[in-house]
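User: Teach me something about this protein's shape.
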Amino acid sequence: MSSSLNSTESLYNDLLELFAELPNAKHQKFIERTLASLVRIAGEEIERLDWKILTACLEDMERAFRVFYPYRHVRKITIFGSARITEDSPEYKMAAQFAHSVTQQGFMVITGAGGGIMQAGNEGAGADQSFGLNIQLPFEQGANPFIAGDRKLINFKYFFTRKLFFLRESDALALFPGGFGTQDEAFECLTLSQTGRLGPVPLVLIDRAGGDYWHDWNAYIHKHLVGRGLVSPADPNLYTITDNLDVACEAIRSFYRVYHSSRYVNDKFVMRLKSELSEADVEQLNTDFSDILVKGRIEKSQAFPEEAVDDTWELPRLVFYFNQRDLGRLYQLIGTINQIGATTPAAAHPEQK
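Assistant: First, the predicted structure itself:
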């Protein structure tokens, strides 16, 4: 009983201190909304299991936020693929080489911390340059030896909070052959990209030299999805298929050559660039990509007042009324911007954000 009273008293004091500092808090609005949600839930008749789920979710996120925060300005690449791939397979060796190559370019690597392709990713990147997002299961999986014990190994209770951080923290996604889990990750990444809930980020599907895993998958996409009008003909632009690691690395590096990031400000799509485009270049973009605009034109801009607390305040912008439907064409627009602005000094460090 004494321990419970001490815990309650400590929490009470922490809350008093939080409320005293709240008016000056940087993110006051969101802290208040979070606390208000907890107060409303506490006033409802919900099950004990509901509280356990809510608590575990928040604890999952708390751990992940703390681990990732010091590395927020370094771009990261998530590597997905089968846990059953053996260490002597060409896919394993390619995944390890890919991870090593991207870390040499300044990127960091995220894996699921397990065996197979995940282990290859952590081995190739090295513990200092990689994260492991492990899932707590009764029968598996333990962390692979290349990330086990590292401070950047995060243990999640729930798959959905784990997947949230795979995607939230990733600036690129690389998928090697795998089973149901890899297919689930591939289609979820595509769904979120196609609907604008992820990225834009480069998505690279990598196979062993001469392999047909992703080419057969792509044939299905074109025959049954594109061919039947179930996805847009431009949607395959959301991903790159290759069996060449140089091509895979360049697909990621070139994506951030000039393009930096994007967000919506009210109903305008704001694209931040590392260097300003010429008036002639912007005019050509309007000619080539007017089909993705709801109205108006693609225009150059500086940061909006709503972006005042953003680290990208100094970067030049392109702004336009995007139709929020043609994401494949949006990726083509980004590719064009990266080509026409590739000679600028800022293009030399795609790994920085």
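Now, about its shape. The radius of gyration is 22 Å. Residues 48-68 form the longest helix (21 residues). If you'd like, I can walk through any region in more detail.
User: That's plenty for now, thanks!
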